[in-house]
Amino acid sequence: MSDDQDEASKTEDPTDKKLSDAREKGQVAVSQEVASWFSLVGGLLIVSLFAGFVSKQIYTSIRPFIEKPHELILDAANVGSVFAYVVAGTAIALSIPVLLFLFLGVSANLMQNGVLFAPEAIAPKLQNISPIKGLQKMFSSKGLVEFLKGIFKIVLVGALLGLIMYPELARLEEIMQLDPVEMLEEIRWMLILLLGGAVCVMAVIAFADLVYQRYAFNKQMRMTKQEVRDEYKQTEGDPMIKGRLRNLRMQRARQRMMSAVPQATVVVTNPTHYAVAIKYERDSMQAPMVVAKGIDAVALRIREMAEEHKVPVVENPPIARMLYASVEVDQEIKPEQYQAIAEIISYVFRLNQGRNQNQNQNQGRNGGTTRQ
To answer: How far is residue 135's CA from residue 325's CA, in Å, rounded to a whole number?
Structure first.
């Protein structure tokens, strides 16, 4: 019951990290039917293309034992060389089939999961030789599926092979009367028919099994919502802590930005929804720079600080919105914005010059009155 509840709670697709960890352990979706199909293809290639070479090599190796056994000297001095001759001939005959099956076996694995190196998967484990574990696997739902699949495969392949061989039964008596060479050739063509039919059927079975194995593996790798959250915390950090750090960084950045407002040359507003503080010094800066910007409450605070420190505030909604959207804090304005900003800064410089002249004049009058 607990296992069923655990399976029911696994509603989330496996993450890339879990699939990667499983792959490192050798846990991947593998279809044995694909390997069986490659083996049948290998058998078909050997029978159809290399049967003559293999049979010729084997016959050459054992020919002296068949045709001239009386001429063989099998004493202690020669038995080793005779044995080596037979083994060498047999090895040459079987080299192509062995290499072909080896290549196809590797290809079957590469086709399904690519290059996979997982030492942990081949390490000896005590639970792998446990009779109890073996019985549990045998009577599990997966074991039942494999059993039913095996029965279905045997019935389907057997029925197809029966259909292929049934017309040949009428020729069986005729084949038995042929000379050995012709008989072997007929048998070879029958094997080609049988293997060709088996390859066609097994191609469908292997494809269906590969789809099922990947579905079953993905279902097995599913995770609970809590597992996804725990993995995210391990890889990305606690979201609450990250949120606090992000808020802290934003707060500090805002404080640094606000501290730059008193040194600004002008603040352009929208008039209250947007505020952008611009700084420009003719002698040390190539282009005006945005030193602070904000919307709504932040814009209001920038405007208040500008008024406190007597920084000119200019209402120009299009320019304020444009600067807020296109220029980041501590970045120079873009060349296409030079003319518009130059007009504003020129206006501010003229305004400041006028204020300075008024202050000088007031100071002069005050000084003259005092002297009188």
So the answer is: 68
